[in-house]
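We emphasize that the prediction below concerns an isolated chain of 263 residues; any contacts that depend on oligomerization or on bound cofactors are therefore not represented. The input was used exactly as deposited, without trimming of termini.
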Amino acid sequence: MSKIHSTAIIHAGAQLHESVEVGAYSIVHAHVKIGAGTKIGEHCVIDGHTTIGENNVFYRFCSIGGIPQDKKYQNEQTYLEIGNNNTFREFVTVNTGTVQDVGVTRVGNDNWIMAYTHIAHDCQIGSHVIIANTVQLAGHVHIGDWAIIGGMSAAHQFIHIGAHSMTGGMSSIRQDIPPYVLGAGQPYHSAGINSEGLKRRGYTPEQISALREAYKIIYMRNLNREDALNEIQTLQSQTPEAKEALQLLVDFLESSGRGIARK
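Result of the prediction step, given as a token string:
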């Protein structure tokens, strides 16, 4: 425990791997588990029934595992789970879940979460996500893998933001954003697909072309959801090399609860 600063407070019951570092004046509460290689900066509070994986970094003044900001919360035992290799910059707050949902807030692996971001109760954050400064996520927000959210954006509760999407700064997100879609605004409006990001992740020209066509089906043909789904499924049969990529869109559209954010 030599990597624990003398002014840090580690409550009895907390489980920290011997390699964990805890900075000055930080507090780790009793029901917290922290994996190997994780670093807790100065003046952080790690609270609640919180499990943190390996090689995470929490910069100074993070508040992790606090109770939900939900008036329905009645001190039920709920949880926060954080994976591996995540970075949480200054003043990030992440709350535990509620019994009205699955009871667990989750953050996956390899995420980059910048200063003053708030991740509310029951949010489900995938992996390889970038969340820029002062983004505010209301309760029950789901974010898919590789999504990027620009600074000072805010997402309404129960919003789903699809994998590989990219949202510009200062966006007001009130409805679901499908996978691959690029957009921004107050309110949010779509502007195409995140083709540059897809190229960087190894998507082929044929796959990107098929996703562009799917975008046109969703946004440019004035179709209802059922008809759009039928056309995308037809596109899948015509472009087998893009079938899996298009299936991500199909699954998202079928499960969307708040409707799709359009132009």
